[in-house]
Write a structure and sequence with these properties.
Helix content of chain A: 55-70%
Order of helices and strands of chain B: HHHHHHHHHHHEHHEHEHEHEHHEHEHEH
Shape of chain B: globular
Number of helices of chain B: 21
Low-confidence stretches of chain A: none
Mean pLDDT of chain B: 95
Oligomer: heterodimer
Structural class of chain B: mainly alpha
Mean pLDDT of chain A: 95
Chain lengths: ~250, ~475
Amino acid sequence: MSIVLFVIGQVLPYITVAVFVLGVGYRFLLWLKTPAPLKIPLTPGPKTPSGVIGRLAVEVATFRSLLYSGPWLWAGGWLTHFMLLLIIAGHLVGISTLGREFMPLGFTAEQSTRASALLGSVLGLAIIPPIIYLLGRRAWNERVRYASAFSDYFALALILLIVVTGDYMRLLSPIDLALVKSYVANLARLHPTPIPANGIFVAHFALVNVLLLYLPFSKLLHGVGMFFSPTLDQANDARERRHVNPWDRLEVS
Amino acid sequence: MSSPKLAEPDVTDKKSDQAQMGAVQTPKLAKSASANQKCYRAKKELLEACCLPEELPPDWKKRAVRKLDELRHKNRSLQVYLDICVKCGACSDKCQFFLGTGDPKNMPMARADLLRKVYKRYFTVGGKLFGKSAGAEDLTEAVLEDWYTYFYQCSECRRCAVFCPYGIDTAEITRAAREVMASVGVATKYVTEVVKKVYEIGNNLGIPEPAWRDSCEFLQDEIKEETGHDVLLPVNQEGAEVLLIPPSADLFANTDTMIGYAKLFYAAGISWTTSTYASEGGNFGLFLDYKNLKEVNKRIVEGARRLGVRRIVMGECGHAWRAAQAFTDTLNGPLDFLEKPRPQHICELTVELIRKGALKLDKSANDDVSVTYHDPCNTARAGGIIEEPREIIRAVVSDFREMPRDTIKERTFCCGAGGGLLTDEIMDLRMKGGRPRAEACRSTGANYLATPCAICKAQLPYVMDHYKVEVTVGGVTDLVSKALLLD
């Protein structure tokens, strides 16, 4: 058992970070280097770079286009993403400050840690219904089911499992944040120490590693990829500015 | 009609997300429902004319996979869209061909998957290791057959892209799949035949110069009879201000539109001409591959250069407008030998003239019509011409009504025959694909459907007739023509 804990706790994280950084980096560079030969923005569309950024920003912040496909899909998608963002931010802030992130707002240490725990618990539970909705939709909506492979269910199920183990830890088997903080700090310092001996924490941590190892090879890259979508990131200015095709540059006479 | 028949799609019990009058209910999945809708294959002679292999080579699988690899490195849209689809299904009930047939391979994400599964199998870690469970599949004869069937059941209208959170444009996938197929000698008779006519004669209908001139003279006589004015339709006139590039169908089928152009230029005092060398707006190369897209478009630039005109105006044609407006400068430019290098859409020109007060208009001439407007897909979603036609119609017509919001403007339904699908052997598919537009039109009670696109004008009368919607299909310029006072 301890060899397993050693591998999970002191070897795997480094492999994960390397694979994640190199994997996402590779895909990012591939997209960056692949030329967009023609102007294909979706019209009506912004004519300037700042307009393009604006349109993308609105889409990312509000998932606007999903509204056209009904309130349920929009809610499932937007809530899952938005709450995930808050949860991840909460991990970074909450663990590094040991729950005292609200003290600058005038809370005492005790009040802050209670608020932090409450917020984490609420978000950790509230995110479950939208994830279940999305998973359920994939299984029950025949159109979505038809186009779904195992990998499509896997990604969402993995995230759900991570949330459930996190909730279990928070509510039934809490771990001292100071232990987590020092464990992670030691990993970062390249002086790994044994992983905290909380079974649920180990499971939660291992699953997160699996997710990060999986991401660079999967559709989860959409978070980065969408910014390379020519229909959204090109300005509608083909008549104002000459767009050159890098692999079919014309000899200007 | 020789098209095999399709069964009616079975609709779902619950109302679709946009349940309103004029909407079409989302069908239940009907596997292979439209698998028998196949375009006739292009034979040797046509493939040769388009510089394509004349038959499937014995090592076609290797060549096709290599071509796919080449294309994904040359087209960011292809590479990104193959990678980032999360199968959310927002697109799944937005394609008119799916709504009309229920065939799951007409759902945009599933159509893209026909290509994506091969991409995953040969070019991704997940696909190579995990095969089907990662959504990967080998390229086989059956897969090629599916590509041929379903990538020629997509009209490249981009409606799906509007509803996708990342703007994934299935038209880009379709274009790539068609280019891969073309590279191993697989293409449709209709598309290659049309492209061949452009190369040999100058336009999609194969109208030679003498016939072009004759028709122009004939229309001149018509206008003289109707208005008493000597309104000319100049041909190959050097030094004219405007080179008009209409869809060739305007000279033979949509003559009211052609007459409209002539009267418009006459009333505005603008000298203009058509070119028998560049007598086609509609670029069918767009439906085949990059090389042919470029070659067909070149004629417009060359035509303008030969005649020494000052600017180019595109007529009522969707694919023409997309190619001319978005691609010309990249493919065949720059256009700065023209005094005004930016091609203009006839509707843009008309709006300018109306706002300047250069046209004398009498709305009452159109009192017999209640008009609704169909946005051609390429004009709206790729060409940005959305408000201009509406402004024009409001200036010449008293009764103008819009179809439901999610069937117009950037969410317009394709007429069902774009992208090289306007061919009789798939008539049943065309009718099914046209149904959402028919129902939306019916819901307005209009008796005139205005649309500035020759494909739409060819397809929609059949569609409206098929669904018993009592409406006349005509151009926007036609309405201007009726209201225009030349005295």
